[in-house]
Write a structure and sequence with these properties.
The protein contains no helices and 11 strands.
Length: 121
């Protein structure tokens, strides 16, 4: 059974860098065809796809967030990390990691419970 568990700082100050990690069990980050995405949902708003890292290590980003976003992985720890720079209160959201197959933008085959990150001074 594939499990994804997000962890994050809970609270980040404006202008700082937000970093959240997804720890994966039951699956390999390098299994062919799979993509590992980050999605967020601000309070009262729709979900937003942020970006993904493929089994190959290639990364893909939402154009609106590309300048502030980095996604990386540590295969030895089976972890995927999202970094979002220069955050503002508008970046307050529940951050989810998600596994898809065939494309980064398809429906999640597995998904974590999410971690709430609040941006506030």
């Amino acid at each position: 059974q594939v499990q994804l568990l997000e962890s994050g700082p809970g609270l980040v100050k404006p202008s700082q860098t937000l970093s959240v990690t997804c720890t994966v069990s039951g699956a390999s980050l390098t299994a062919a065809g799979y993509f590992w995405s980050w999605i967020r949902q601000p309070p009262g708003k729709e979900e937003e796809w942020m970006g993904a890292i493929a089994y190959s290590g290639d990364t893909y980003y939402s154009p609106s967030l590309k300048s502030r976003t980095s996604i990386s992985r540590d295969t030895s720890k089976s972890q995927i990390t999202l970094q979002l720079r220069s955050v503002t209160p508008e970046d307050t959201a529940v951050y989810y990691c998600c596994r898809t197959y065939g494309s980064a933008r398809r429906e999640c085959t597995s998904r974590g419970q999410g971690t709430l990150v609040t941006v506030s001074s």
